[in-house]
Every structure is written in structure tokens, then in C-alpha cells.
Design a protein that fits this description.
about 180 residues, mainly beta, 8-stranded antiparallel β-barrel, about 70% strand
Length: about 180
């Protein structure tokens, strides 16, 4: 329940920031402060002896509250599973709320750090049955946006979505972002 409240606070902050975003060009790769995007992420699931590489497709929507701070929500689902020893591993779906801390500069590349909460649902299935687990954790990472055109940019990002004593979910994502 504590994580649900934290996610609600991140989303509420994002909505408040989106409402106060001005119409001026706050982010060099867009005309305004609002953006949306699509990402493909190469995800590594590690749990005990299992080490599976799966793929996800996700969408994001966000607002640049300032040139240095963005608030966004993301959601996605698995599109590529891996079979190891007769067991299929997949990341069924995930969603979360995040803050991005951008190093705004004059070049077409903007590095950033990202911090937030992610809820993940993972699945392992075999002839013996299916096991599904969903967890929420603090997520963090680094990335960079690269401006292609005034309203279009690409991004590359590493993110640690989930971590506990014997499980980790990491991802390397590539994507495209549309700015409004």
C-alpha cells in the first residue's frame, strides 16, 4: 500500500506539472513541454539461477516542468520471451511514474537521470504450470535524448526496474519521442 501511495504522489505531481507547463519552448527538442514516445527495451530478468533476456514495447507520456525536470508515466508489455531449460520466461506488463532530471545544454544531445516507481508482472511457464509474480519497486537509470528535428528526438536509456535480494530486472531501451 505504501508503494501505491508513492505512485499516486508521482502521478499527481506529474499532472500538476503538466498543468503549469507554459507554451514557450522549454525543451530544445520540442516546441512545448508535453511529449509522448515509444520504446523497445531489451530486458534482463535475473532470479536465482535463471537469467533470461526478453523484450518489451512501451509507451510514455510526460511534461517538462522546467528545462531540467520532467514528469512522466510509462506502461508496456512483453513482446519477446525466452525459454531456458523447458521454462518460458516473460515480462507480461509494467507501468510506473517517474521524474527525469535533465542536463539541458546547447548540443542536440540531452543526458538525463530518471527516478520513480515501477510495477512489474513477470511469468514463468512450463508443462508443470505457470507462476506469475507482480512487484513494485523504486526504479532508476540514465539516458540521453538526441534531437532529430524540432518535434522529434530519439533516446537511449538504461534502467533498473526492480531489485530485491535474489531478483533483478534491468533494461536497455531505444525509442522515439514526439514533442508538442
Amino acid at each position: 500500500m505504501k508503494h501505491a501511495r508513492s505512485i499516486a504522489v508521482v502521478f499527481a505531481t506529474g499532472l500538476a506539472a503538466a498543468g503549469t507547463t507554459s507554451a514557450q519552448d522549454m525543451y530544445k527538442s520540442g516546441v512545448g513541454g508535453l511529449y509522448t514516445g515509444l520504446n523497445y527495451t531489451f530486458v534482463n530478468l535475473e532470479s536465482g539461477n535463471a537469467d533470461a533476456d526478453v523484450g518489451t514495447l512501451s509507451a510514455k507520456v510526460g511534461a517538462m516542468a522546467t528545462p531540467y525536470l520532467g514528469i512522466e508515466a510509462r506502461g508496456g508489455f512483453g513482446v519477446d520471451d525466452e525459454r531456458i531449460g523447458g521454462v518460458d520466461y516473460s515480462l507480461d506488463n509494467f507501468f510506473g511514474g517517474y521524474a527525469t532530471f535533465n542536463l539541458a545544454n546547447e548540443s542536440p544531445i540531452t543526458p538525463y537521470a530518471i527516478l520513480g516507481f515501477t510495477r512489474v508482472e513477470i511469468e514463468a511457464s512450463s508443462v508443470l504450470g505457470t507462476a506469475t509474480e507482480d512487484e513494485t519497486d523504486v526504479s532508476y537509470g540514465i539516458g540521453m535524448n538526441m534531437e532529430f528535428a524540432p518535434n522529434l528526438s530519439g533516446n537511449l536509456e538504461y534502467m533498473r526496474y526492480y531489485e530485491d535480494g535474489d531478483a533483478e530486472i534491468d533494461g536497455l531501451g531505444v525509442g522515439i519521442q514526439f514533442n508538442f
